[in-house]
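Summary of Year 1 activities. Much of the first year was spent building the evaluation harness for sequence design. The harness presents a backbone, in tokenized form, and records the residue chosen at every position. We chose the following record to illustrate the format because it has been used consistently in internal testing since the harness was completed.
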């Protein structure tokens, strides 16, 4: 991801290298090219507008520096503004003082929630926690079994409705899982919920009912970075319908242009907390805005 954007920005900056001092015309021309590069990368228009306005303002105000030539100064400003747009500081999970910490996953079907549950379990175990995965996606055929498979791979326990009891009520499963976690001394509960292929009122209602029943400490909105501009509209719909505390970007290993990653924080005001970069459990990282900005400007 970001290859085209990276290449475009490198070209923009290299045309500045020979300049002794940035004129107003240079700043405007550079801003225009950065704007095109961001729009081509599928970054949402309001995000692009804000970004460009800030870069221009800072480039105009930049002091003549002994240490940095004008091109380096622009790179520095763009880097800092990219970090800002990606959320600034790394936002970590807030663990509850009284366990279990309840983490609820929400997002469209296929966004990667069940896979993420396994990844989170593996990561939480590495961090010294004793996670319990909860199968509250009772909509999608095989979702329960899929969660059991990833739980087994991650070496984490899975709480699921007993087989043979019909479809079961996801709200009830989620509620009962908390009692189970307390008894079995799991300090973190990760609840996998049902998604649909598109935004749907019934899905939102069910997620909101689960939310109200278990009062999660963290609701993570899981979004496939490959869906481009749709990531922003979907995020907005989940923000209105369920609300969330943080975002997990999945499929960052794909050849998406990166717009979702660069837009979602700014548009929703919620931080990106984790990144998923493949199908395997270890393809997963805490999201660091500075490292992502570094990759874009590499
Ligand atoms: P859910 O419907 O939201 O639970 O989504 P799943 O966890 O079932 O994931 C949907 C598909 O995306 C599966 O085939 C996963 O293997 C795949 N997947 C999930 N995360 C990633 C990722 O980060 N990269 C890639 N390439 N595939 C992923």
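For this record, the design step produced the sequence shown next.
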């Amino acid at each position: 991801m970001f290859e085209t954007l990276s290449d475009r920005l490198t070209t923009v900056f290299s045309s500045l290298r020979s300049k002794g001092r940035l004129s107003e015309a240079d700043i405007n021309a550079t801003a225009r090219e950065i704007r095109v590069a961001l729009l081509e990368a599928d970054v949402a228009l309001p995000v692009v507008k804000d970004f460009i306005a800030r870069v221009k303002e800072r480039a105009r105000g930049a002091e003549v520096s002994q240490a940095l030539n004008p091109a380096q100064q622009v790179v520095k400003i763009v880097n800092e503004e990219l970090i800002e747009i990606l959320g600034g500081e790394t936002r970590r999970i807030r663990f509850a003082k009284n366990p279990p910490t309840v983490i609820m996953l929400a997002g469209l079907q296929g966004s990667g929630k069940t896979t993420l549950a396994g990844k989170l379990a593996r990561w939480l175990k590495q961090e010294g926690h004793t996670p319990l995965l909860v199968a509250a996606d009772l909509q999608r055929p095989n979702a329960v079994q899929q969660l059991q498979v990833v739980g087994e791979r991650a070496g984490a326990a899975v709480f699921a409705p007993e087989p043979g009891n019909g479809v079961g009520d996801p709200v009830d499963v989620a509620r009962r899982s908390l009692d189970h976690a307390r008894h079995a001394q799991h300090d973190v509960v990760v609840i996998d919920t049902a998604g649909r292929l598109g935004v749907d009122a019934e899905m939102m209602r069910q997620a909101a009912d689960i939310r109200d029943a278990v009062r999660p400490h963290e609701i993570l909105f899981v979004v496939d970075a490959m869906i481009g501009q749709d990531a922003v509209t979907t995020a907005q719909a989940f923000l209105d319908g369920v609300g969330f505390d943080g975002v997990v970007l999945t499929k960052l290993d794909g050849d998406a242009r990166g717009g979702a990653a660069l837009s979602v924080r700014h548009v929703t005001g919620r931080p990106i907390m984790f990144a998923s970069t493949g199908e395997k459990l270890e393809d997963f990282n805490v999201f660091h805005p500075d490292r992502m900005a570094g990759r874009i400007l590499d």
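The pocket of guanosine-5'-diphosphate is lined by residues 107, 109-115, 195, 250-251, 253-254, 276-279, 283 (CB under 6 Å). Quantitative recovery figures across the full test set are reported in Table 2.
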